[in-house]
Amino acid sequence: MKFGMRKPSLKKRISARTSIKRQIVHRTKLKMPRGWGWLRNPKKYAYNKVYQRTTFDVFALIKKLFK
């Protein structure tokens, strides 16, 4: 598990927004309601929950500084 700052990746940001899987799920309206990730994939949900609490995003930090 990672601790500390996350390295931003422009390539991963773009690919996450334009993936075929994402397009299919959104266009067929199969999206789950917000907060229901534990139902769809509990293992991934638990990992992401811990990851989000142990790391921080550079852009979120910059956003807080300039508020």
Layout of secondary structure:
Blueprint: E1 4-5, H1 10-17, H2 20-27, H3 37-40, H4 42-54, E2 55-56, H5 58-65
Parallel strand pairs: 1-2
Can you describe this structure?
The protein has one domain (7-65). With 67 residues, it is mostly helical. The chain has helices spanning 10-17, 20-27, 37-40, 42-54, 58-65, and strands at residues 4-5, 55-56. The longest helix is centred in the C-terminal third of the chain and has 13 residues, at 42-54. Strands 1-2 form a two-stranded parallel ribbon.
The strand count comes to: 2
Estimate the mean pLDDT confidence.
88
Major β-sheet, in short?
A: 2 strands, parallel
Give the terminus-to-terminus CA distance.
30 Å
Number of helices: 5
Which descriptor suits the 3D outline? Answer: globular
H-E order: EHHHHEH
Q: What count of structural domains? A: 1
Could you write a compact summary of the structure shown?
The chain has 67 residues and is mainly α. It is 61% helix and 6% strand.
Keywords:
single chain; 67 residues; mainly alpha; two-stranded parallel ribbon; 5 helices; globular
